[in-house]
Amino acid sequence: xxxxxxxxxxxxxxxxxxxxSGILEWYLDQISMIFVLGAIYGISIVIFGVKQxxxxxxxxxxxxxxxxxxxxxxxxxxxQMQISxxxxxxxxxxxxxxxxxxxxxxxxxxxxxxxxLVTAMYVAILSVFLYLPLYKKLS
Length: 139
Hints:
Elements (H helix, E strand, L loop, with lengths): L1 H20 L8 H19 L1 H9 L12 H31 L4 H33 L1
Helix pairs in contact: 2-3, 2-4, 2-5, 4-5
């Protein structure tokens, strides 16, 4: 129960930060989320195969259950954290290239920077609230 409560508090505090800092829609970008999830789980399928990648998705339940050990699943989450960092770098580079291509159009600069930052934010949220706790709990 303590693990779930700690996780819930962290998620709620982050959600309140997003809501209080501006319009919630600013933080929602479907293309960036599809890119992040597609890249992380696509590369996971290449590395671990479909079965183990699906097990990592189903393994989210361990976040809310009593302590258990699964070194194999922990390794998948560790690898997904590492993949996430590279996905964030790709997203930031993509945003920077978009920014540079629209540098003569002031209206395009803001969305280009937002694209880079939102992609990095999605990766950070996944890593901090999902992959790291699961890795630590299962290893």
